[in-house]
Amino acid sequence: MNGQQAQNGPPKRGARHPLLLYQRLNEQVFWPCILVMATCAALLIWTPDKLVTQRLNLSVAFAGSGAILTLTYAYRLTAYAQCRTDALRIQLPFYRLTIPYETILSTRPTDFFRLFPLKKVPRLQRNYLRPIMGKTVVVIDVEELPRSRSRLRLWLGRYMLHPDAPGLLLTVRDWIALRSELDERRTQHRHHLA
């Protein structure tokens, strides 16, 4: 199998590298949603006399928490970066971004907190970002962003765009593997075009 793979070149699709920002979102809402659902379920089953008129509200709260939990879990499963034959794909739950290798100037690692110091992060987002602050991100410098910054910020969010230059930030668990694979694919793509 390895000999055949060597003859045919690398697979068309590389490994999927889950995006930690979306995993963190699921982790942050998991226990509050479970607590709300358990409380609502207990109150719906027990139904004290004072809450009989609130059954609809409890049902809505139960269903809403379940929907949030399901949606963030789906986000967690469907948000990843993947090297393809001729481009890097960033797949989000409702958006797909493809960055051709020829538009990538360089890749480099840096610490998340160097780009977004905790003191400059809005207070409401600090708790969400605290576990990610110490992580290494892969910075992908590009000639220009494939879409306008405002449109990309709408879909990707603030923390996937380089704050000072045209570029993307990928926060993944195994940043070394992603960067190696990305650099290898870019080199192969250049040789293929030459």
Distance between the termini: 28 Å
Main sheet: strands, sense, barrel = 4 strands, antiparallel
> What does the radius of gyration come to?
21 Å
The count of DSSP E runs of length 2 or more, i.e. the number of strands, is 7
**What is the N-to-C order of secondary-structure elements (H for helix, E for strand)?**
HEHHEEEEHHEHEH
Structural class: alpha+beta
- Detail the poorly predicted runs: 1-7
> Which strands sit side by side, in order, in the main sheet?
1-2-3-4
Inertia-based shape: elongated
Helix content: 40-55%
List the total number of helices.
Answer: 7
Average pLDDT, all residues: 90
The CATH architecture assignment of the largest domain turns out to be Roll
What number of structural domains do the residues give? 2
Can you characterise this structure?
The protein has helices at 2-8, 20-46, 55-78, 112-115, 123-129, 149-156, 175-193; strands at residues 13-18, 80-84, 87-92, 95-100, 104-111, 136-142, 167-170. The strands form 2 sheets. The protein has a 4-stranded antiparallel sheet with strand order 1-2-3-4. The protein has a 3-stranded antiparallel sheet with strand order 5-6-7. It has 7 helices and 7 strands, in the order αβααββββααβαβα. Helix 2 (20-46) runs antiparallel to helix 3 (55-78). It is elongated and about 75 Å long. The chain has 2 domains: 13-19 and 82-193, PH-domain like (Roll), CATH 2.30.29; 22-76. With 194 residues, it is α+β, with helices and mostly antiparallel strands.
